[in-house]
Structure formats: structure tokens, C-alpha cells
Amino acid sequence: MKEKTSSKTSSIFQRKILLESFKGSFTRLNPLRLIKNPVMFVVEIGSVITTVLTVYNLISGSNFVFSLQITIWLWFTVIFANFAEAIAESQGKARAESLRKTRNEVIARKITGKGQVEEVAAPTLVKGDTVLVEEGEIIPSDGDIVEGTSLVDESAITGESAPVIRESGGDKCGVTGGTKVLSGTIKIQITVETGQSFLDSMINMVESAKREKTPNEKALEILLVGLTALFIIVVITLPAFAGYMGITISIPVLVALLVCLMPTTIGALLPAIGIAGMDRLLQHNVVALSGRAVEAAGDVDVVLLDKTGTITLGNRMATEFIPADSVKLEDLVWASLISSLADETPEGRSIVKLAKKELNVRGRDIKPPKKSLFVPFTPESRMSGIDTVSNKIRKGSADAIREFVKTLDKTMPEKMKKVVEDVSIKGDTPLVVANENGVMGVIRLKDIVKKGIKAKLQLLRRMGIKSIMITGDNPLTAASIAAEAGVDDFSAQAKPETKLEMIRKYQSYEQQHLVAMIGDGTNDAPALAQADVAVAMSAGTSAAREAANMVDLDSSPSKLLDIVEIGKEILITRGALTTFSIATDVAKYFAIIPAVFAVAYPELGILNIMGLSTPASAVLSAVIFNAIIIPLLIPLALRGVKFRSTSSVSELLGLNLLIYGVGGLIVPFVAIKLIDILITFLGLGG
Amino acid sequence: MDANGLIYFILFLLVAVLLAWPLGRYMARVFMGEKTFMTPLVRPVEKFVYRLCDVDETEEMTWKGYAKALIIFNILAILFVFIIQIVQGFLPLNPEGFPGVRWDTALNTAISFVTNTNWQTYAGERTMSYLTQMIGLAVQNFLSAAVGMAAALVLIRGFTRKNTDKLGNFWVDITRMVLYVLLPLSVIFAILLISQGVIQTFDPYVTAHTIEGTNQTIPMGPVASQEAIKLLGSNGGGFFNVNSAHPFENPNGFTNLLETLAILIIPMALVFTFGYLIKNIKQGLAIFAVMMILLVTGLGVAAWSESHPNPVIEKMGVAGENMEGKEVRLGTANSVLWGTLTTIVSNGGVNSMFDSAMPLTGMIYMFNMGTGEVIFGGVGVGLVGMLFYIILTMFIAGLMIGRTPEFLGKKLGPREMILAIIPLIITPATILVLSALAISSPEGLAGLNNPSTHGLSEILYAFCSTVGNNGSAFAGLSANTVFYNLTGGLAMLVGRFATIIPAIAIAGALAEKGKVPLSSSSFPTTGPLFVILVVAVVVIIGALTFFPVFALGPGLEHLFLQAGKIFS
Amino acid sequence: MKTLKNAVMVFAVFTLLLGVVYPVAVTAVAQLAFPHQANGDLIVENGAIVGSELVGQNFTGPQYFHGRPSVIDYNSTTSSGSNLGPTNQKLIDEVSQRIHEIKQEEGLNSSATVPSDMVLSSASGLEPYISLDSAMIQVPRIAKARGINEAEVVKIVNENEEHSIGSSTTVVNVLKLNLALNNLK
Are the CB atoms for B359 and B253 separated by under 8 Å? Predict the structure, then answer.
């Protein structure tokens, strides 16, 4: 489903992206801009040198065909590199652009201080404004719903066509600018300043100018610059040694050798890899608010997961009614049913559903007794129920009900105590039902573990990531769920501040873990701010979103796993292409060195193991290979090297080394030979 | 060389490991300040040194403080050794009445001995007074080794410590190195060598009346005491011009065995010391494996190359191996073993003349030095260099498994990268730049003793050796000129301090960090994949740097020789 | 300033310890325990030093075993090798000259092979040994010059065979051989 959507999206953008990227490939030739990529900058300098020489040869009437060919391919090398960066950038940019356009066209209906409605352009909204959005309208900016419930189509941002419910109060009040209200009328309080909306940060992120390099990227660039410097020295000193041996090497050949040795493949694709990584996150409907966070995601080794919604379906379901000795089952069921009718929590609804099934009254509309009064759940009482004319029915935790019956001078029967214990031991939640006559029985609420979560957690473990379940449940329940889902550890009876404490503990000097968490509620904000990778659900509160460094547009708690994977893929792609780039040098040496030396010393023809036809064709073949490998690898750079789930890290490394290291050694030998055959056939090899 | 030679290599390496392992353990205890069997004997001396020198044993230095102490100590040493050479004519203990040494030679020599290179552009017996030899040069054999060791020690502390800026006390480190390790071992080795015929006397030269009725002047001197530390401390500066090929420095196969062991033992022990200090002996073994693979491979190629006679001379009706520049009492196997060890370990002592070795043998020696002498390597600095390569390897490996690179629980960021890359790039770059300068200038070419490709090798070898702080030479090159004294001096300084200072700085950066716990997602750095990867990185970086010059120098010479081409 | 003071003091203390105390102490032990070895394994015949067992001598007479080629002619105060590379014309010329001389001296026919240590110069120029093969090709000349049986010379050679650790080449000490020859009478 997701795949299909993204491929559809990209086909819409395809033509525009290509056009834009071609243009970008040339505008990026500006040295002031290219200097940010030192490797390609050196290639450009080399290209300029050979260009000048070619022109000089042309004017002076000497043979310029060879140097012209070298020159052309060197320029191609630079342009291909630019193209890679441009195409990566324009993918995200195109999406952001269309969003920006949408937003700018939106007319917002602002509610002024006097309660009147005023029509203003969306970009003029400031934090604190309240706007009215009706059915079929576009939400002008990010905010929290302060009034109403609506069905929102977020496909404009996420590409996901299934609409989502957003409602005031609670943890699903957040809406994003650019999304469309399908039904309902809502009042939204804008929570961001002009230019700082979610859309704006998306746009910023994909514009490379504002993209800061991550530490890993910097370190890799230092390595690449170091290698480049070393190869410059190798090439610059070579004429001295060759001269001593009576060999002159022409400048185009020297430049060609330098460019071939330099890590141009990775140098060309490095910017694209980072940008494409962001874009891939976007395809997973995650917006990273900093590049650093994406890479940190690859390093995360502890993940805090909320039990509810992530590990379990989130809703405990009633599965059994267990009456007390003196109570008939039907009475218990009936009492449970009417006391839950007004209970809109998933648990309440599941009780209703099960009760109706038990009483065989499915589908019938059950109305509560007349003149009865619902007692809603409060954190203080920790019970809910109904006061009918004749009785008071309460359901709640064993502790709460014990308190309740105590006020009636009753006690919890021993049998019920045991039932409560048994249910708890099995990891389920006992909900005790009582009325003024005492405890009526227990409803077993079962927490349903999500399908597939076990496999995902196993994958995490293989990545070396420890998963920790956070739950407000009692330790028994927590342990049972933890065992069923296969988490490594859990924290039971967690309070809002537990998460923050846990994160601090894992991040401490002694432990030095990198912690990721996903959160939605306002009380998650401090923990989100503390976590290394903090994913806020887009449906969450704005406080949570502000504290996070990534936002998940799907509000899917298991998204963390995708994020970790993408973070790793970015690093793997960099490592793989670096290895490949360096490995290909071996073949290029074997192409160029004999070409340069064997004319004077036929003995060194032994190094021409590829049997390339002429010195000129050998040098050209190496340069051509060096150039065209860049566009050939652009898809890989954009897609990323897949994170394979192997049984061990060594196996993963071994596999990648085999493909990109050993492959990098072998592929160019074959490719350069083929290119040599081709250009000899075309008569370009002088 | 035959099968016996191979068996000898294997036995030799076995003996070396059996000696190095316990020595490594002992050194680890010394450096942790733990009690050893030497403590009762040495501790009072150690304390006395601290009291005399006003060193507070418990005071630790930051990386900057440590580097400052090291640099000041080295500048002081260079100045002292330089001045004593210049003014030796006015000083006592100069029976031959040598005048002050020429300034450029004196400068080169001062740098040479302080940087643990022991590159000698002069003929010692005709240039240096006894006083200069004793309190100038010989002392540096100990101190430069101790300084190299200190660098390794600090880097190890960088990995083992966390959340601190304290990296130990430089004075304490070098004092312990000298008193607990270098001095006792030197005494043992010196006495063993003397028992086998290495001379040790302050008597004047002896004149012999030969049975053919001529006179022969036989030189004397305190050779054994210098021989021991020259080899143990990866120094290599010989008492005699031909170094350990001289019968008084290396009279027979047994002394040769002792001396080759002395070359290897401390650098090899340090790898085990590393394992003990980081409390992960398996890691030490993994690095040991990397070095052993590189050693055995290089030794294998050199032995193969040297076991073939010079084809041109063979055709002239000469039977047997290439004995030019070799001692027949030692033989080819001992010569190749020594040559390999002295170049991997940055020792620089020789028992045969490398200039006359077969071309590919020379290439292996240059490769050993050109990659930074990280195969066991010079005392201390070899391990440091290997750790630079490992940082580089772990960086790429980390990326390939999708994690921020780390090694021994330390995350490797841009700062570590830049500090590891500097020595890895600067040292080979300096070799190439200075060699290119020499080979394209009349001053450089003037020193050549051999034509064509071999001349290129002579120059290349000189800078591989000086930058690598090795000190051995393709000795035909006449290097006692202003040009070579200055370029060589520069090369030695760069090679030494572009390694040691980044090592201390990295240690500073690492010690400040916390330690990341190992998890199943960390790449296991003790397994075979790690070993293969590090070996590959060392070989590939070396090969990519030197491919063109090796092709033009020793490579082409080998091909010439096979084709029977000779140059005049 | 503290650092500089420490540096000067540590430097001074170690200069004294390592530059003076260490060599003097080792020399003292050497002279007490191994006086013969420590003083150069000198060979004394009839109260006169005839040489060191370890330092090669330049024998030229036909009645003596000759040592390996030495670029310094066994001038023991300036040890040196030739440092000629394997592709150097000079090396080839010198070797071919030596082959010529040896074949003439030892009366070998032109197709005979010569042991390499006899025509290739040693590293030190002071090599006291030659290979067994090199000794053997000299036997006929020496026997002839001394007017003795070749078997007697061969016997002396065999008695003086030495083996080195790590080398499978059997070697003989030239000075010892020649002393043994002189002692035949």
C-alpha cells in the first residue's frame, strides 16, 4: 500500500525532478558552491587544467583529441556528481514546493477577539491565533484542536490515503497545516509562529543549504579529504620519479590518474546519500527535524516503548466474567453492561460487547435504567459506574473497589481476592464489579499483544537494540506481557516521570546508551527532550512535537523500528560506497601505470593484466569508468544499501565487504576492459 | 635458503612469542604501578630519581601537559646532543682528537638519535669522541625508546580511561620504562652477547701481527652494552660502520638469534601489554594476529626473493645464493629474517647490506617502513601507528554495519578521524615529497652509488627509513651532505612527531569520553574478520601510496634483472 | 617552568646512569666473567697476537686459505660492504674479474662453477669465515704449495667445520684453518 503510494507520488514528480536536476548539475559547477564538496572541487580544478591544455593544443595545432576526451569525461565526472546531489534534493524539494504552494493559497478564517470571523492568508497566522476550519477545507497551519472532532485527510503530506480522527482534548488534538478536514467543524489554536510550521521545517530540511553535516559525515569527509591529499602528493611527485627514469608524463594523464585515484565515487554521492536518507524517512511518513537525529537513530541501542499502542493493541478487551459465590452470572453481566454503557473507553466498549454476547442481546440497543446517573472515572476514585435509582454499581481496580465496599462495611470475599490474584498472575487485568450489596465479581480484561510485534522486537535484538516496555500496569501484568511480546526489560507501574528517569539512567556515564523513544502526550515532553532520538506522533500534543526531533505523521508507535533501520542504512550506504570507491583504485592503477610506463619500459607491460589495447585507451577507459560509475550508483545512493537482517554484525559486515569491497576490486577490471574494447572499436583510443 | 630456513623462522617466531608474552604481562604490571619481582630492587632507585628530579609521582598530566613535557624533553635532548658534538674537540675523553662535528651532520645526528632513528650519515669511529658516543648518543638509545613507549602508554590510557583529562605522568612513565624494562633487559642481553664474543672493553685498539707478516689493527670498544640497547630499543645505531654484520657486533648464529630476538621482543610484548592494560587480552591477540600475518607475509616474499640467485651472476658460473653484502657465517635466512624484523620494527640495525639485496627484498623492506612500521613496530610507536590504522578500519567497518564507528567502547568522531588521518597521510606524503625532491635535484643525485632503478630505490629507501625513524639504509647513498642531512633531519622530525603528538592528542580526546557498552550490535574486534580487515587496510593504503614508485624502482629492477639487463 | 626543571633534572640523571654507570658496570662484569670474549677473542701464538678469531684477515699466499672478497681489503678500522645493487654493471664487472682470478688461481676449468661467497663481497669486509665449498676448491692449490697430501688439508678443513643457527651452510674459519696448516709441521 505504502509502496504503491510512493511510487505514484514519485512518478508525478519524475519529469520535473529530472529537469530540475539537470539544471542543478550545471549551476552547481560554480566553484564557490562546489568547494563545499572538496573531492569534487579538486576534480573541477583538474577539469579546468585539462580544458586549458586542450584549448592550447588546439590553438598550437598539436594533437588535442586525447586531451579533449579526457577533459570531456572529467567534466562529466563533476556534472554526474552534481546531478546526484541535485536529484536527491529535488525529490524532497518538489514535494515541499507543492506543499508550500498549497499552503500559500489557503485562506484561513481567523476568529478575532470579538468572536468574529475574519478571512486572512494562511502565512499571516501567528502563534496563538484561533481559526475555524470546516468540512472540505485545508487546515492553514499547525495547531491543536480546541473544539470539535473531525476526520482529517493527511495524504497531502503523508501520501497515506486513510483519513484519521482528530479531536479536541486528549492526545489526538494535533493537526498539521496542509491537511484537509473531511468531516466535522473544528476550532484550532495555532501553536507555531509564522515560518516555523511543520511544513516549513520539512522544506528547510530538504534544502541542502540549511542542512548541517552530521558528525559521521564530517569524519568521513576528513577521511576523503585525507585520501585526496595523499593522492595529490602521489601524482604530483610522480613526474620527478618518472623523469629520473627518463619518462615524461603528460599533464592530462596525470590529472586523469589523480581523478581516478581520488575517492570520487563516494565524494560524488556523499551529499545525495544524506539527503536521500531524509527523503526515505519522509516516504515512511517521518519528518526528521535534524540530520543528526537520523544518524543517531542508527546508533540507538535502547528503545523505550509504551506498552499500550506499541506492544499491545492498546485496548484491553473483556474476555470473561467471573461472578462471586452468591452472585448469578447474569446479574454480574447485566451490572457490568449497564455500568459500562456510558464508558467510551475501549475497555468499556469491550465490556459492553462481551456482555451483549453473553446475554445474547447482540445488536439490540440497551438503554440504561431511567433516572440513573453515570459516574465517570476520575483519577482520585479510580472507579466508574452508574447510580441507578435502586443501587450503585461500581467497577474498578481491586484496591479501589475494596475501598468502596469498605465504606459499605463490607469486605472483599476471599474467593474474589484469589480470582483477582489469578487473573493478575496470568498478566490480565482484573476489573472488580461491586454494588451496594458487595462485590459481584470480576471482569477479566485481556491485553492483546499486537500481531508481528514479537518478530519486530526480535529484529531489534539482532540489531543489538534493547527494548524496554513502559507500562502503568502492576509488575505481574507487565511481566506477563513482556514475556509474551519478547521485550528485554520492562518498567511497571510507571509514572509520567519514570520515562525521564529511565532515559537518564541509560544515558548515564556508566551506561552511555543512546536511547530512543516515541511519545505523544504532553507529559512525554520532558522525556522526549531528553532522549537521543525522540519521535513525536503527529497526532500528539504540540508540546510533545516541540520536544521531539522527529515527527511521525502516521502516529504509529512501531515506526521507531523503521527509523532505526533508515538511520543504519544511511551509514551503511556511506561505508559501502567508500569501500567500493577505494577498492576500485586497484584496477585503475593497473590500467594507468602500465600505460604510462610501459612505452619506455616494455618490461612493465606485465602490469597490463587487463590487456588494454593502447596507453591512450587504457587511461581513457579508467577515466570513463570512473565517471559513469557515478550515475550508475545514483539509484543505490538514493535507495540506500538495505539493512540486511543477519544473524550477527560480523555477518552483515562480511556480506557488505564481499559485495562492495571485493566487488569493488573485481568490477572495474571487467568494466575497464569492456570500455577499452568499445573505444578501441570506435577508434577513440588513438 | 632451504626448508631448514623456514623451520628456523617458525621456531624463531615461537620462541619470540614465548618470551614476549610474559614480558608483556610484566610490563603491564609495571605500567599499572603494581608490584613485580623487580620492585624490591628497582623501587628504591625509582623513588630516588623522583626525589632528585622533584617529580611528584602521583601528579597526572592532561594531554597538553604530557605533550608539552615530551616536547621540552626532546628539544632539550636534541640541543644537548647537538652541542656536545659541536664542542667535542674541547672536551675530555677524545683520545683520537676528533674536532667538532660539522653543523649539518651534528644536527642530523642529534635529531636522529633523539627520534629513535639512529640514521648515521657519518662514520662513527672517525667522527665521534668517546664522550659524545657515551653521554650523547648512547643515552638517547634508552630515552628515545622510553619516549616512544610513553606515547603508546598514553594512547592506551585514552582507551581505558573515561570522563577524565588526566593521562598519567610523563616523567614517571619514562623512568619506569628505563628502570624496570630497558635497563635490566639491556644488562642481561649485553652479558649474554659478551659470553658469545661481542666485545666490551675500554682498552685501546689492538695491533695483531698476522701470520703472513703484516699488521692488522683490531678496533675495540664497549660494544656489547650498546648493542643490547640498540636492538632492544629499536634504535639500530651500530658501534661499527657495518652495524651487526661486523663480527664483533654479531659473531655467530647464536648471537644473531639473540639479537633478532632483542629486536622483536619489546615491540611484540607491547601488544600483549596492550591486551592486559585494556583488560582484554583477546583484543591484544587480535592485533597480534594482524601483525603476525603481515610479518609472515613480508618475510615469506623477502625469503622467496632472496633465495633466488642473481640470474646474471648465476649465468656467469657462480653457484649459490646472492652472497653480495651478506655474511656467510650468518647465511641468507638469518639475513632475510633480520632485514624483515629491522624494517617492521623500525630498528634499523642491519646484519647484511640491503643495497645489495635482491630488488623485491628491498621492496618488502621499503613497504614495511612505508606503511609506518606498524607490524609490531618501533618500541611504542609501532603500536600507536597500528592503532591509527585500526581507528581508520573501525570507522569504515562501523559505517558498513550502520553504527557510529567505535573502538574499545570509544565513539570515533571527526576529531579522532582527523588525528588518525594526519600521521597516516603525512608520513607517506613526506617520504614521496622528499624523495621526489632528492631525485630531481643535483644535490640529491650526487649521493647515488647505483644507477637506474636501483638509484631510485636508494633515495626512496633513505626517506622511507628516515620518516619511519628506522635508520637502516641502502647504504651506498652518500648521505653526509648538507642536502641529505637537512632533508633527512626534517624527515625524521616529521616521522616522529607527526605520530607521537597526534597519539597523545587522540588519547586526550578519547579519555574525555565515556565508554559505550559493548552490545551485540558492536562489531567484534577480536574476531577473524577484524584481523582480515585491518590487514587489508594496511596493505591497501600502503599499496595505493607506493604502487607507482615501487613499480618504477624495485619492481622494474626485478624485471630488468630477470631480463638480464645491467646498468652502468 | 616546573616542566623545564623536571626535564633538565631527569635528563641529567639518566645521562649519568645510562651514559656512564651502565657501560662501566657492564664492562666490569664482562672483564671479570668473560675476559677472553670481551677483549675480542684474540689468538696468541708464541706470545704475539696473530689476530682475532672473529676478524677476517687478508691472506694472499698460495699456501693459505683465502677469505671472501672484501671491498676494504680487510682493513679492520673501516668496515664496509660494496653496496652495489644487483643490476649494477660495476658489480657484474667485479664478479667477473674475481671469477677469472679464482679460476686461474685454483686451476679450475672455464666451465666449472664457483661458490658465490668466494666471488661476492661480504657485508662487513671483515668476514672471518668462508663456506665449506669455498674451502674445498682451495685444497688442491694449498696442498700443492705446501707439498702435502690433499687429504691432510681436507682433514683440517673437516675438523674446523662449523654450523650456524639458522643457516644450513657449513662454514670454516679461515684464520683457524691457516693456523692449523702452519701447525702441521
Answer: no
Chains that touch B (3 or more CB pairs under 8 A): A, C
Rg (CA), chain C: 22
- Residue A612 in 3-state DSSP? coil
Are A377 and A383 a contacting pair, CB within 8 Å?
yes
CB atoms near residue B458 (< 10 Å): 29
pTM: 0.87
Q: Quick check: B316 and C115 CB within 8 A?
A: no
Which amino acid belongs to residue A439?
Answer: V
pLDDT tens per residue across all 185 residues of chain C:
788 999 999 999 999 999 999 999 999 999 999 999 999 999 998 889 999 999 999 999 999 999 999 999 898 888 888 999 999 999 999 999 999 999 999 988 888 899 999 999 999 999 999 999 999 999 999 999 999 999 999 999 999 999 988 888 999 999 999 999 998 86
Nearest to A7 by CA among A416, A283, A293: A283
Touching C (3+ Cβ pairs <8 A), the chains are B
Catalytic residue among A142, A200, A301, A306: A306
H/E run at residue A447: strand A438-449
Touching A: B residues 434-463, CB under 8 Å:
435-437, 439-440, 445, 452-453, 455-456
DSSP strand pairing (A107-111 vs A174-175)? unpaired
Going by pLDDT thresholds of 50, 70 and 90, the confidence category of residue A504 is: confident
Distance CA A428, CA A156 (A): 41
Task: Choose from B175, B329, B453 for mutation: most chain C CBs within 10 A.
Answer: B329
| Residue A466 backbone dihedrals phi, psi, to 5 degrees | -90, 130
Can you tell me the distance from the alpha carbon of A310 to that of A453, in angstroms, rounded to the nearest whole number?
8
Neighbours of A367 (CB within 10 A): 9
Q: What is the pLDDT of residues B466-487, one digit of tens each?
A: 999 998 888 888 889 999 999 9
Asked if A362 and A417 touch (Cβ cutoff 8 Å), the reply is no
pLDDT tens figures, A527-582: 888 888 888 876 666 777 777 888 877 767 667 778 888 888 888 999 999 999 99
| Helices and strands (H, E) in chain C, number of each type | 8, 6
Q: At what angle do helices A215-244 and A291-299 cross, to 10 degrees?
A: 90
- Give alpha helix (H) positions in A28-64: 31-34, 38-60
Residue A90 cell numbers, joined: 529535488
B33 grid coordinates:
604501578
Out of B413, B517, B552, the one facing A241 most closely (by C-beta) is B552
A539–B contact, CB cutoff 8 A: no
Report the candidate in A664, A490, C5, A223 with the shortest Cα–Cα distance to residue B425: A223
CB A579 within 8 A of CB A561: no
Question: Is B touching C (3+ C-beta pairs, cut-off 8 A)?
Answer: yes
Work out the number of other CB atoms within 10 angstroms of the CB of residue C89.
Answer: 15
φ/ψ of A44, rounded to 5, equals -65, -45
CA nearest to A171, candidates A446, A620, A493, A522: A522
> CB–CB of B548 and A463 under 8 A?
no
Q: Is A579 on the interface with B (CB under 8 A)?
A: yes
Q: What share of chain B is helix, strand, coil (3-state, %, to 5)?
A: 65, 5, 30
Residues 6+ positions from B434 with CB-CB distance below 8 Å: B463, B467, B487, B490, B491
